[in-house]
Amino acid sequence: MSELPYVKSNDLPSGIREIEFFHPSHNSLPSDLLAQLALTITEAGKDGSVKVIILRSGGERTFCAGASFNELISINDFETGKNFFLGFANVINACRKCPKPIIGRVQGKAVGGGVGLASAVDYCFATTFASAKLSELAVGIGPFVVGPAVERKVGLSAYSEMTLNATEFYSAAWAREKGLYAEIFDSAEKMDEAIMTVAEKLAASNPEALRLLKEVFWSGCENWDELLDERAAMSGKLVLSEFTKEALKRFA
User: Is 196 domain-assigned?
Assistant: First the structure.
């Protein structure tokens, strides 16, 4: 029997909270998992006992394959489509608004929305296996919702390159050079050691200073509730187009 999808949180010593999501299909994200993830991040941000958050996925391979392909194929009306893409917007905005620093743990490939998650954290660690791809254009859509977060991290030039070259993976070394990853490691074990070192240092820092720093880091993004809503509408419309429907059928 295959494992069931989940979002769970685990409290570690020193006020460190680990939030983990999992889906048996390469950690893809359907609507219900996205909603749980956004809520879990928001709740951790409001919990006074939490000093720092580690965001990770389950398993040893793919970090996140992005949107649930099965759910994409099933979308037949605009509101359903927009609401699906709003799920990613809500997770990104939850990370943005969270007053606690969020450390990302990327153990493997990040695709589409997975790149968005890696971009939405404040400090991202990865392994050398964590290549990245924005695949949306290949199925006739575009990384509209995750785009602002990705562009904020890697810059417009690199974001444009990834978006237009939608069938190719970019290496973890390339992603580090562009600023998506802060550090990369040869193994998950070495990465986890580094993550805990940084998390413990942050947990011992002045929480008010960390809160103010998060405001500084995300300055200029205050309009993202409205912006990502508009971007979700773009994707919700495109997913209904004949081009996208045919592309999804080919992938299916």
Answer: no
